[in-house]
């Protein structure tokens, strides 16, 4: 859902002037952020045993939503304090920092 939202929000531009696709995916991403926020309540990571492949598959999409080189829609994350704190924890991990530098987001025009 996050990828679809990003596609219509940032990359489609004038190819699709109808508001429905972006609204539909933004609404679904917002709903899923609420589900994720509840899951993270009282937890550091998605699985109780600590940082796992589930986190590795999840946090980059959140960074796409927040980050200026991604979709640049941090306002979607603002109401979800557990999600925001979770993303910050994931990005603060030394191995994640190194990994994020291997293939950085390309600059978009």
TrEMBL record:
Chain ranges of the GST C-terminal domain: 1-109
Alphabetized SUPFAM superfamilies for the sequence: GST C-terminal domain-like
Pfam family, one: GST_C
InterPro entries: Glutathione-S-Trfase_C-like, Glutathione-S-Trfase_C_sf, GST_C
Domain of life, source organism: Eukaryota
Protein name: GST C-terminal domain-containing protein
């Amino acid at each position: 859902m996050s990828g679809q939202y990003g596609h219509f929000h940032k990359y489609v531009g004038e190819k699709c002037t109808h508001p429905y696709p972006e609204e539909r995916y933004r609404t679904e991403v917002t709903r899923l952020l609420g589900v994720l926020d509840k899951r993270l309540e009282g937890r550091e990571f998605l699985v109780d045993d600590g940082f796992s492949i589930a986190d590795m598959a999840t946090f980059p999409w959140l960074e796409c939503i927040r980050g200026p080189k991604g979709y640049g829609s941090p306002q979607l994350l603002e109401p979800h304090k557990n999600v925001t704190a979770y993303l910050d924890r994931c990005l603060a991990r030394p191995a994640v920092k190194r990994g994020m530098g291997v293939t950085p987001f390309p600059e978009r025009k």
